[in-house]
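Pilot study result, target chain (450 residues):
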Amino acid sequence: MPVYDFEELDFYELLGVSRSASPEEIKRAYRREIARYHPDRYVNASPEDLEYARRRSQLLTEAYATLSNPSARSAYNLDRRRQSGRSPSRTAPPPPPPTQRDHQAELYQQARNHFEAGRYVQAIAALRQLHQINPFYRDSAALLADAESRLRDRAAEKRLAAAPIPLRHLTLIAGAVVVLVLVSGAIWRLGSQHSLRSADAGAGVIVTPDTLPSPVSVEATPPMPLPTVLLAALTTSPVPSPPPQATVALPTLTVQESSDPLMPTPLSRSPEAEGALLLRDDTFDRGWAAVRRTTWSVGPRDGRYRVAAEAQVGVIWSYRSVSSSNIRMNVDVEVVEGKGGVILRFRDEQNYLIFVVAPQTGDFLLEQMRNGTPTTIASGTRDDLRFPDRLFRLDARLRASQISIAVNGKVVVETDIPSLPTASRFGVAVVARETRSEAWFDNLEIRALP
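Predicted structure:
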């Protein structure tokens, strides 16, 4: 029988609790860990991974049974002290302090060894244990995401291999048909009067000095980009060429005004808005990143776009590229918890501008990240930013170094930022530093300003 790394841990380390943990803390830790390693979750995994999960769940159950029983816990503690050479007598002098172990480095190395050997379940287990101690240790976040992705791919390959041969033939035929349709659409678009620029999309996490002693950046690897002609065919459908004065980068969505008094009013069709070139008008139903990690996630859901992050994570963003850096951006925002808003002039995780609102408290923040150093441009608390339903319409205008931001038609910030980065990436974001944050976005519209 193989010997696993977790078998060297005592019951407290296995559950991830301190030795002074209360019975309720032990119960919560057991439920969390057993949900991760229950064998039923690994029915499609390799026999080695299934055996690992089975053995770990057995040991977790044994640990919970011991530590949740006061007499059994006392006996276990006494036995552990005896094994470590300590005397239970209160009059015995205290032993010298043990040599400090770099537990984080050990867990990381264990995870790296399991990953390189293809033992992804064991690697995920070690990385999750490391994340309970320090979620920002080296490249552990990226390594965890890679291990989870490879484990899913392995399960998918096994399901495909187990499928009947005719089903695999149908899959290949369907894939060929899709490619032919995409190429045909791309050729039609290339021959039309108005060509399209490929849509750039991405998402990730930015950890700022507010969350760590020194700046650290952990960015999720975006999906492998499609060739330009295929991506253009994916994001558009063959429709007649629009008139030259109304070139459209994506299919236009007609927004109907809601009769619900709690819903924010969509962007009014002012003469300025009608005359401006429409760069993007969508409801996040396609083309936007969909990423799910242990402590944060972005992606479409129920006809809207959701961005969420646990406390201490930092800034979570998702962006799309347009063809101009002077724009007017409007979007409906529902902040369920924490702070949510828009990310403006995004160049990279070290250079961007972000504006967020906390409708529960009326707080707002306009912050610029320049070469990895955050600077507060404007912040404060306003009574007219308190929304009981937590819904509002955000309107941001950027022209050169000038910026104006309004919420539900009321100007909140109007300023000039000489060092504003030149970029044509705009998106949505949440700030999760002191507390958890979750926001939902809908009815996005971006127009080029003359």
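One observation from the pilot: The first helix runs from residue 11 to 15. A full batch analysis is planned for the follow-on phase.
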